[in-house]
Design a protein that fits this description.
The protein contains 15 helices and 12 strands. It is α/β, with parallel strands linked by helices. The strands form 3 sheets. The protein has an 8-stranded mixed β-sheet with strand order 3-2-1-4-5-8-6-12, with helices on both faces. Strands 7-10 form a two-stranded parallel ribbon. β2, α2 and β3 form a beta-alpha-beta unit. α3 packs parallel to α5. The longest helix is centred in the last third of the chain and has 16 residues. The two termini are about 30 Å apart. The relative contact order is 0.17. The C terminus is likely disordered.
Length: about 400
Amino acid sequence: MHGQFKPTLVDLFCGAGGLSIGFRRAGFDLVCAVDSWSPAIATYRNNVDRNHVIDAFILPEIDLPSATVVAGGPPCQGFSSAGRRHDDDERNSLVTVFAKIVARLRPKAFVFENVEGFITGANGKFVLDLLEPLIAAGYHVHLRKINAANYGVPQHRKRVIAIGGLGWNPTFPEPTHSALGAPGSRLAGTHLPRTPSVADALVGLPSPCSGSLWPTDHDSRPLEGIDLERAKLLEPGQRMRDLPERLWHDSYRKRAFRRVKDGTPTEKRGGAPAGLRLLDSNEPAKAITGGALRDFLHQTENRPLTIRECARLQTFDDDCVFTGTKAEKIQLIGNAVPPRLAEHFARCLVNDLRSRDELHVEPEGALLSFVPTLSNGMSPALTAVSERVRSRFGLSTEIELQKTLRV
């Protein structure tokens, strides 16, 4: 594995290419990327690679080249907390597709990324859909919830990451940064360097009203009327619920009281809505999603964020060009794995793979760790999933339940 070893990557559900960009920075050669959404394909060709991206639906039997690592994040809207959850959403089945492809191709390692709602969706069904085929194929797997801010991304972005090695134990990267401003953010260690703030991430950008042609997608409409009144009343970090009720959006009011009005169970509603939020210059942003242009206000100016500012908070370089309508561009950015996060995990994998000849190899698969929360407590739903995982894979796998990552 030493000397001229050059790891290769297959990127499934590649989207805007955040995973591929990060893995390339860590020294991986891309051999294939796949997606079926035309704005994603065009964006990937603009910024990552024109020759190795395939426009195709991803099915278990898809013809793919061999690679050292297969990585990907299947579309997650079916169990995203950004809206109502649908356990029978056909997109959820793509978790199984990903697992079956990895089990068939048998790369030396895989990386899986998804939203935090993946863990509790359908009472843990999707966790088992991912783990069962992979562990049966011989993979040793870590599955943990992380906050991207603890890896230097200027954004509180809670995600689920699974890493597996075929017959060997991969290292799960330890946090590199401390981050304030989100529940559980102190648990990764407060002695670490602070993660970049919103102000740090956006430094150097010209005013979107300056007429500058560079970087692209850096324009914003001025606020007027009631929208401007809302912005002027909000303090840094505050959101819609901190405004007088007369200023609430109708959609926010309906969402906030949905459970009362229709009896929808909490687990079907998704999280409590922010509705609108003024970012705090001194802290990381909240998670950038497809609704960021609507939901977030610039930290010092009474206006929404620009697409370029959202891309900065996702750690895309300014020379990345996004293709499509404004709605498609922000969806591409919001769905992406931050390149900085991908690079950190890729570098850890490279170090493992280069020393793999020195690692103990065990052909039988195993769940090495399961860390479903960043806090000291678990909800009833999370407790039930943890017990389901414990029951399925047994105590002999040394599942780490409710582990606090203190480094």
